[in-house]
Amino acid sequence: MAKQITTDVSVEKIKLPKTGQVDVRVLSFPGLYLRLSHGGAKTWSYSTGKMRLALGTYPEMTLAEAHEAWRQVRKEIKAGRDPRATLNRKPASTVFADVAEEWLRRDIAGNRTEGEYRRILKKDVLPAWGHLQIHEITRRHVLDLLDGIVDRGKPTMALRTYMRLHRLFAWAVKRGIVDANPVATVEKPAGEVRRDRVLDDKELVAVWRAAEQLSYPVGHAVRLLILTGARRDEIAKLRWAEIEDDTIHLKGERTKNGEPHDIPLSAPARGLLVEEVPRIGDYVLTFNGVSPINNWDGPKRQLDKISGLTGWRLHDLRRSLATGLQKLGVALQVTEAVLGHVSGSRAGVVGIYQRHDYAAEKRAALEAWGEHVMALVEGRETGVVLPIRSAR
């Protein structure tokens, strides 16, 4: 019994048998059948003559999906594999929220910026697109989303969202989930805003004293950021096992540039860790003894309220240390080594042949910085000036 089944409409209108079951062969797809039952059931199946496999029922499985199942079964048989494993596999969801989660798991997991990716998706993208099929998202959707972020005064966040979405859709294209990347034809919404905010001495003291009023672990984390010039997550996710010989030893997976980085601990930093930080788990700074600090929004608002400062970020503490070291007479190469930079004076050919690690110079610089900070906090004369060292 051969019929022209070319659309879902033709499947819908096909007549059912008055009794029993009838198999309708789907032309142009050898072995694909639609089994009709007098009770109303319509079931797709594939038959080799010796074996029959149920593929799915209509309308849950459309004609196009039956065609795809037919292709997959024939592919598995041709490869000498049991096609039933493919049929029993749950089809991957194409809902944007599910695709985004799979992308994070397969492409981003283990990346040091995974947390940032998740925050960006949670903040703006998932509320707008989470329920949509990914192939429904168009250039217009992308523009509306990015324009909304820019309009609320967050151009840099709009750019970062653009970059993350571009990567997500590029991955989805490679996986065959979508045919095209709707972000590829959209211009970048804004350039990164280069910040040059440096806290002066009074502001630095205000932040330090505000941090002293915050309970463990956030207040301690902020003071360590001031004393070390480390990046926020390098301190927030610091483990006790990473501290040895009065030095923080960070492996490449813990740093932005992927290079190992040692941070000598000054006397004030050592005192803070020994005298004030409780040891209640693997992490130095933890709320529950199990996981590190992962939310800074509330603590940052508290810091602003207590200190009376606005318009600054935690990363500005790092820039403030760099500026402060220069004022203390620390050589630029040493300052870059303290920060773990591999650009600037340590880039290119110089970076290849200049392998000195500046360990002693870094320790001297951070000791001087620690003394300078504590003198400011305690209202003493600082008087610390290091001799400027020439490049090696």
Number of beta strands = 8
What about the largest sheet? 5 strands, mixed
CATH topology of the largest domain: hpI Integrase, Chain A
CATH class of the largest domain: Mainly Alpha
How much strand content do the residues show?
5-15%
Over the alpha carbons, how many angstroms does the gyration radius reach?
Answer: 31 Å
Topology as a string of helices (H) and strands (E) = EHEEEEHHHHHHHHHEEEHHHHHH
Helical amount:
40-55%
Low-confidence residue ranges: 344-354, 388-392
CATH architecture call of the largest domain: Orthogonal Bundle
CATH homologous superfamily annotation of the largest domain: Intergrase catalytic core
Question: Count the helices. How many?
Answer: 16
Shape: elongated
- Strand line-up of the largest beta sheet: 1-2-3-4-5
Mean pLDDT: 86
General description of the model:
The N and C termini lie far apart (88 Å). Helix 9 runs parallel beside helix 13. The longest helix is centred in the middle third of the chain and has 20 residues. The C terminus is likely disordered. The radius of gyration is 31 Å and the shape is elongated. It is α+β, with helices and mostly antiparallel strands and 392 residues long. Strands 1-2-3-4-5 form a five-stranded mixed sheet, covered by helices on one side. The protein has a three-stranded antiparallel sheet with strand order 6-7-8. 47% of the residues lie in helices and 9% in strands. It has three domains: 87 residues, Double Stranded RNA Binding Domain (2-Layer Sandwich); 79 residues, DNA polymerase, domain 1 (Orthogonal Bundle), CATH 1.10.150; 178 residues, Intergrase catalytic core (hpI Integrase, Chain A).
